[in-house]
């Protein structure tokens, strides 16, 4: 990657973070909800759309996955992935598509979506006869579920957000 492209990528990430922070502040002002002062000033966490560059999440600890107005507290990226995959699987049409994808999506060494957990290193059960491999770094895990699974079953994840703990 050349220096200009790298500068543009960093600029995009910074602008996304700024835009996300302002959007969250505006949303909080509009909703006029009771939020503790610590969260209000943004010291504890930052919320990003799941569609943001996955590199933003690398090295950060998730605190919640947000589906519209519903917030689900989490502590691990595997839990974030599990919640997203379970939501996708809950749609009967998407469930059929996911079941049809089993065994057809593979990484370098292991299958990513399978009927059984036998040949997986860190399987996560999504439903009966549906497992996903989760033994990846954050960036790879998020990119894999979005581009290789959710896009393939035409699941709209554009409204999903992830809250991550801010560095102290």
Radius of gyration: 17 Å
Shape summary: globular
Question: Which segments are poorly predicted (pLDDT under 50) over 5 or more consecutive residues?
Answer: 33-41
The proportion of residues in beta strands is 15-25%
Mean pLDDT: 83
Widest beta sheet: strand line-up: 1-7-2-3
SSE-based structural type: alpha+beta
Quantity of strands, as a count: 7
Largest sheet: 4 strands, antiparallel
Helix content: 40-55%
Order of helices and strands: HHEEEHHEEEHE
Distance between the termini: 31 Å
**Total DSSP helices:** 5
Summarize the structure.
The protein has helices spanning 3-31, 37-40, 77-90, 92-101, 138-150, and strands at 45-49, 62-67, 70-73, 113-114, 123-127, 130-133, 160-165.
Secondary-structure blueprint:
Elements: H1 3-31, H2 37-40, E1 45-49, E2 62-67, E3 70-73, H3 77-90, H4 92-101, E4 113-114, E5 123-127, E6 130-133, H5 138-150, E7 160-165
Antiparallel strand pairs: 1-7, 2-3, 2-7, 4-6, 5-6
Helix pairs in contact: 3-5
Describe the structure.
The protein is an alpha+beta fold and 168 residues long. The protein is built from 5 helices and 7 strands; from the N terminus they run ααβββααβββαβ. A 4-stranded antiparallel beta sheet has the order 1-7-2-3. Strands 4-6-5 form a 3-stranded antiparallel beta sheet, with helices on one face. The longest helix is centred in the N-terminal third of the chain and has 29 residues, at 3-31. Residues 33-41 have low confidence and may be disordered.
Notable traits:
168 residues, alpha+beta, 7 strands, 42% helix
């Amino acid at each position: 990657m050349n220096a200009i492209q790298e500068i543009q990528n960093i600029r995009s990430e910074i602008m996304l973070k700024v835009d996300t922070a302002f959007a969250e502040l505006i949303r909080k002002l509009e909703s006029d909800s009771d939020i503790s002062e610590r969260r209000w000033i943004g010291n504890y966490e930052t919320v990003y759309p799941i569609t943001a560059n996955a590199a933003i999440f690398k090295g950060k600890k998730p605190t919640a996955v947000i589906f519209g107005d519903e917030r689900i507290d989490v502590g691990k990226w595997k839990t974030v992935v599990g919640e997203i995959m379970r939501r996708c699987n809950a749609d009967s049409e998407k469930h059929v598509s996911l079941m049809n994808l089993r065994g057809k999506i593979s990484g370098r060494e292991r299958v990513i979506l399978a009927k059984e957990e036998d040949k997986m290193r860190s399987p996560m059960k999504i439903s009966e006869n549906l497992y996903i491999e989760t033994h990846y770094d954050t960036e790879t895990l998020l990119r894999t579920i979005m581009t290789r699974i959710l896009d393939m079953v035409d699941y709209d994840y554009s409204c999903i957000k992830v809250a991550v703990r801010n560095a102290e």
